[in-house]
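User: Please predict the structure of the protein below. I'd like the answer in structure-token form so I can feed it into my own downstream comparison script.

Assistant: Understood. Taking the following sequence of 404 residues as input:
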Amino acid sequence: MSSRKESGRSRSPRGKGSIRVNKAGSYEYRFSYVDEFYQLRQKSITCKTIDECVERAEEFRLEIERRGKRIQPEATLTDIISQKAKQDYLKNYTSEQGYGRNLETIKIIERSNIGKMKIGDIQPWHIDQFLSSITCYADKSISKIYGMVKTAFEIAYAEKAIDVNYMNKHDARRPKSVKPKKRVRGFTEEEQVAFLKALEEHKVPYGRNTYKLQLLIELYSGMRMGEINALRPDCIDFKNKRIYVRATVARGIDARQFIQESTKTEAGQRHVPISAALEPVLRQALDEMKSNPEGLIFFDHSKKNRKGSPYKNGGLVETSQVNGFFKRICKKAGIDADFGQHSLRHTFATRCIEAGIQPVVLQRWLGHTDIHMTLDTYTDVFAKLHAESTDKFDELISQINNNI
């Protein structure tokens, strides 16, 4: 390589910039580049030789190109999934509650055999082993895990970080759970009577919280527990006999509990009727309400403050707290409580169906997104009514035929 020093400014031998010799006798290479924000920039590099200048300039351009890519060469599967989840949250495609749940799912993937592998190092047998390992989760969790991994590979392939998307192969299908499917069921009439009796007889130990009123509201309204614990007095309209469901207690980043001023779904923004059984429960709740920072009907004044809590004293009532209380009542009543207090929401729906309330009305009361969700959730109850309706139909036809 020539070490000839040049005077003044001249074009680089490789035609991508200009070179001049400074007073110290070194070469200064000045060139243009496009940064990661697609802006044209100028940069100078000083070295002892021309070739060294050009080589360092090429390294710099490659680094800028690398920064501009969404997927870095060393990115792991978890890196890609985390970046996608964070961007969805920052762009408001995902709520804080949804982002918090996504982070919990990402932790599962990170602990797996492929979670910390570079996306380019993952081979078909790694994916096969991973998919086999997640069958221990429920189908709902498997769908979310599988969907995240599939999306990560699609992003990596689109960004040319990988040459082949192995998640598109025929044998990379979503696995099925080994757990037996269980339907959340509502109480039978006998179980409902036993539950109410045990609830009435239960004596709350001194210093312990009682969640009797929340459980009764769920039983007589079908509201979700998070929605009940987010109720404020102005949500209760005794004149028009309605409860306006506007918010819910949600779990966000780092399991932080907060009031989400919207419901689980758009359909969740609704009103539910105040029945004769529900009205005295609501009036008692309002009578017993104590002042709190959020102005909520239900607030845990005995809760110890957690680090980072926005409350000086107490905190929001969490669904898990109510679940523990519910299971203790069910144990006294001799009722299976595997599904937690959500069984009361199903009990409300079951009683509504048995009372002949139309599915489209029940859908609105429950806040289901569409009618199919209502029909699919309560298939067994509707099937029982269908059988009874067939008997009534046969009886009517028989009466008509007897008059011929």
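That's the full token string. The first helix runs from residue 50 to 68.
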